[in-house]
Structure formats: C-alpha cells, structure tokens
C-alpha cells in the first residue's frame, strides 16, 4: 500500500479486493456516463447509465481479472470511500490495461497518475503494452506520458444490408477444443496469447472459427452485433469471419461494431458494402508493438 506524492495527502492507493466491486462498478458507471456527456459528438445521444445486466456482466469480468491478476488491480481510497480504480492483466510479455476511472469530482488532481503507476508496476517486466483508450484528453495525456502510441479507433453503426452479405463458407462454431488454435493465432497477431482469458470469453460469447489449408481465424460475437474480438492469419479469413458475425445478427436491428483501427482497412471496406456508418471513437494505445492486423481487439482483453 502506498500514498502518492502527486495526490491528496489522505489518499491511499491499495490493491483491489472482491469487497470493492460494488463501489467500483458504481464508479465505472458514473465515470463513463460523465465521459460520454463530455466527449460524445453532438449528433450522438448520450446513452443511459448501464442497466443491471450490463453492470453484472462487468462485475463478473472484473472479478475474473481480479482472480487471475490481483497484482494488476488497484483502488484509490480517501476517507469518503473509493474514488478511483485501475484493473490490468499480464498475458505472456504484454501488459493490458482493462478499466481505469477516477470519480469526476476529484479528477485532475493526480489520482489517475498514481493509479496508473500502481497498475503499470504489474507489467514492469513486460516488453509490450496495449489498451483501448477513451477520447478523454486527460486519459490521452496519461497514456502519452507513459510512452504509448495512439492509433484512432473507429466504430461502425447502422443496420446491415442483408442483400450485401456474401455466401459464407468455411466457418463453423468454435468449442473449447479450439483454445490452442486461438492462442497460436493470438501470438502471431499480437505476440501474446489470450490464454486464460479464453475461459471467460468462451463462457460469455458465441465463437466462430475458420480453419482451412490457407489460414485460420476466430471471432467472438458481440451481443449487440458484430465481433468482440477477431484474429486471423490473413485478410480473406478475417473478412469471412466478420461477414459471418454480421450475418448472425438479427435482421433490421441497428448494430455497433467497435474497435477498428486504420491498419484494418479490410473491415472498413466491409462497412461500406454493408451500408454501415463509420465514426471515430477513442484510440488503440500500444507500446512496443504495432496495431495488430488482421485483428479486431477486445475492449478490455486487448
Ligand atoms: C482518465 C482518468 C482516469 C485520469 O484521472 P485523473 O485523476 O483526472 O488523472 P490525473 O489528474 O493524474 O492526470 C490527468 C492529466 O490530464 C491533464 N488534463 C486534464 N484535462 C485535460 C484536458 N481537457 N486536456 C488536456 N489535458 C488534460 C491534467 O492536467 C493531468 O496532466 P498533468 O498530470 O501533466 O497535469 C479520469 O480523467 C477519468 O476517469 N476519465 C473518465 C474515464 C476514462 O476515460 N478512463 C480512461 C478509459 S481508457
């Protein structure tokens, strides 16, 4: 446990515990809602606060991360309670920052810096780091000062034109038996397997796999349409998987596909054919590596 020279004297930075999760999820909901109000373009409505199901899913994932990487998860506490937190993991030699929030009323006083330093100490032996960053200028400043390169992320929205969907072949449902294949693809695309993260992902997302003589790939489907995570050996396999994910969505329902980087132009070509709108939305921040391609990163597992 440490106090920080960069923040109020009564601030304690300490490891997160299971008992902190109710306070931490409330802070996550408040902090990101405030962020949306400050940073979303005017033509987009500010989403409502996350509902109970969304909060419960986030708590479940954070409890999982706390179990695998207790040394990567920290809270900032004052006499009034928990005012900030950062969660992170190490997979092979890559440090991944998951969620990072400071209460809006105490932002800008160095608490974020102290939290990021604590979480980053978990990845001190790593060669690479990766995170999906918000558009908050304060977060961006922290990441640039920590040596990250920023690559704008894009989000695709709208209703998929069903008549644009090609005939999809060579894609099957994935199973836990595909873990070795997925870890091997992860290493080729981003130099680090997701490893144990596949346990959580397999339990919460449908999985598609393409495994042919010319290359392999996998994609976890997002409940709101599109993919939560996609990795492939080549562009053709990635395209096949993204189309399969778009085809799996309910017809006529608007989707939101996050986390596309400029390195993945193949996905933007699909967006155009599918009639989806492209918006910029935060950054993929990387250190010691390039944005993976062909790849769609997960918002927290990277
Ligand atoms: C990102 C966040 C956790 C940082 O916490 P914090 O306590 O405000 O961080 P700090 O005070 O240590 O550092 C913020 C830095 O940004 C600077 N800053 C603040 N507002 C800024 C702005 N509008 N433009 C540029 N810089 C800004 C501060 O001056 C400070 O820099 P300095 O230390 O060189 O003076 C917090 O702002 C937050 O919760 N944001 C909303 C959620 C979010 O976006 N999280 C990151 C998700 S990836």
From TrEMBL:
Name listed for the protein in its UniProt record: N-acetyltransferase domain-containing protein
InterPro entries hit by this protein: Acyl_CoA_acyltransferase, Bact_Acetyltransf, GNAT_dom
Native species: Nocardioides dubius
Keyword set includes Membrane: no
Keyword Transferase recorded: yes
UniProt entry keywords in alphabetical sequence: Acyltransferase, Transferase
A Pfam family annotated for this UniProt entry: Acetyltransf_7
N-acetyltransferase domain span: 11-166
